[in-house]
Amino acid sequence: MGEIQLMKGNEAIAEAAIRAGCDAYFGYPITPQSEILEYLAAANPEKRTGMIVLQAESELAAINMVYGAAAAGKKVMTTSSSPGISLMQEGLSYMAGAQLPGVIVNVVRGGPGLGTIQPSQSDYFQSTKGGGHGDYRLLVLAPASVQEMSDHVKLAFDLAFKYRNPVLILTDGLIGQMMEKVELFDPVPRSKTLPDWAACGKKGRPHNIITSLHLDAYEHEKMNQKLKEKYALMQKNEVRYETYYCEDADYLIVAYGASARISQKTVTLARNRGIKLGLLRPITLFPFPSEAIARLAAQLNGILSVEMSHGQMVEDVLLATRQYPALRVEHFGRFGGVVHTPEEILEAFIKLFIQLN
Amino acid sequence: MESTDIIKPENLVYKRSRLMTEQPLSYCPGCGHGTVTNLIAEVIEELGIESEVIGIAPVGCAVTVYDFIAIDWIGAAHGRATAVATAVKRVLPDRYVFTYQGDGDLAAIGTAETIHACNRGENITIIFVNNGIYGMTGGQMAPTTLEGMKTSTCPYGRDVNMQGPPIDITRMIAVLSGTYYVTRQAVHTPAAVRKTKKALLKAFELQKTNKGVSFIEIVSNCNSGWKMSPVDANRWMEEKMFKIYPLGDIKVDGKMLV
User: Which residue in B has a C-alpha nearest to residue A66's C-alpha?
Assistant: First the structure.
């Protein structure tokens, strides 16, 4: 059994980065995730593992530092919250285009604009549909506990290098700030070798060029085709989700992250009233567990997508159930920094699905 | 005497750098970029560091410089070359890392990254080609465009009341303690080329001593953007550009020269 600690979600991410053998972290302070940079600065990872920690002059600089260290073949991470992640979109597009691995954490707060520092899930579209310019996808993980905040960092690095693609951990101010017991995984040593594609000095091989530029449109189409195939491979191999009371469910909640934690309680409340409600929690948001939802759809009377937003993920749930046009799919969520309660979700569910029947 | 009698190593006065690839340069004929690119290849070859060097290419006329010199390269987003270089040097401190940037890249969109990389004293070389115009996008106003100079986005000449005066970013970064060697050179005459080469050699060698940023501005012509012949462009550069951007060392061994 690994070392057990009581930690904030943000601290778990920082500690997990050191333990995952991360070579470098570049970040810029923003609430509600500044504890990550603070933890890393205090933990002195340069002494512990040789990991570099540098506070950048902006999120723009931070993501381009991530781009640079990734291009040099290193394991690199940055973290931010919604407004900062918006600033990073150009860099993420370049990383996807140049096929660079890297881990990015978004501890989401309410938007748009400066919004609020309270938790939200309103960055779903930006995270799962690309975010920056061009045809690309990030592989998106959605932790729902402090334990997963730690575990997903290690998983994210593995996936980033497996696919040479940036991996986004999409969490929120609630999971980032709450404290829970976490079992930390044993440290992985930092890699002593660099990948053969890295721009790190061409000793003993032809020179490497890391770029996302192909001035010839036909060349660029070929590169895009490669990306498209890579994203299809992720959809085939990397879908992760968890089900809760789904076997006999007549109704289903689909929710990720903090909303999934809250919806677990809603399921219990509904079952106490004799309503057979289940929960499907996507762990990967891209690739989305569409097939798992479609398989359940045959037995269901309705699906409620619960998200702290106006209703973004509900579009993917609708797409997943398009073979069942008669199946009602609705959205519920508080937004703008307000966190819904299990009772509010149940009330909305009953109003939308039970009272109408 | 046959020509083969002359072709001997001891008679060789100039040769193409081994590091230059077969790819034809994409720069306009008469432009200083070709000379600068060639000098970088020569310097890296002479220092014998081709296996340990990583170049950061910009967005601008030198966007495809990675096709011309056979070393490892990273193409950066517009303006972000010094942030990229910072990270590469931090994770690979024993390598030689340099950026190759134009005035729009380094002194407009990338101003923050330039200043903060210099302020942190990153142990990198910044090569800054200043031709007072956006060349690649077709001759728009740059932060370094001279007062009264006509470009496609200031067709009646740069009005300093509207657009501010040309920025001298090289002097700005020279006052920061993180810069160790700051110089301004040109490549329009053989003598200037030799001086620039010396400056480049010094800049790369300084990376061994971990003293901070070495920054080389190269004032260059843009005959296409300026709409002049190469000869006229060089004359105009000497008369107008050198007045605002005078050549010579600005900071040596960490000390400002008055």
Answer: B87
User: Which residue ranges form the domains of chain B, and what is each CATH number?
Assistant: 20-256 (3.40.50.970)
Sorted by sequence, the CB contacts under 8 Å of residue B51 that are 6+ apart come out as A201, A202, A203, A204
Q: Which chain A residues have a beta carbon less than 8 Å from that of B124? A: none
β-strand pairing of B96-102 with B125-130: parallel
Fill in the DSSP letter of residue A352: I
Dump pLDDT digits (tens) for B49-69: 999 999 999 999 999 999 999
As a 3-state breakdown, chain B gives helix, strand, coil percent values, each rounded to 5, of: 40, 20, 40
Cβ atoms of B129 and B235 within 8 Å: the answer is no
Helices A217-237 and A146-163 cross at an angle (nearest 10°) of 140
Structural domains of chain A sorted by starting position, each given as residue range(s) with its CATH number in brackets: 3-237 (3.40.50.970), 241-354 (3.40.50.920)
Count chain A–chain B contacts defined by CB atoms under 8 A: 126
pTM for this model (two decimals): 0.97
pLDDT beyond 90 at B126: yes
Decide: A28 and A55 in contact? Cβ < 8 Å.
yes
Q: What is the pLDDT of residues A5-37, one digit of tens each?
A: 999 999 999 999 999 999 999 999 999 999 999
Write down the ipTM of this complex: 0.96
Q: How far apart are alpha carbons A343 and A265 in whole angstroms?
A: 8
Q: Which of residues 40-59 of B touch A (CB under 8 A)?
A: 50-54, 56-57
∠ CA B71-B69-B125, rounded to 5°: 70
- Please give, rounded to a whole number of angstroms, the shortest distance from the CA of B251 to a CA of chain A: 25
- The pLDDT confidence band at residue A356, using thresholds 50, 70 and 90, is low
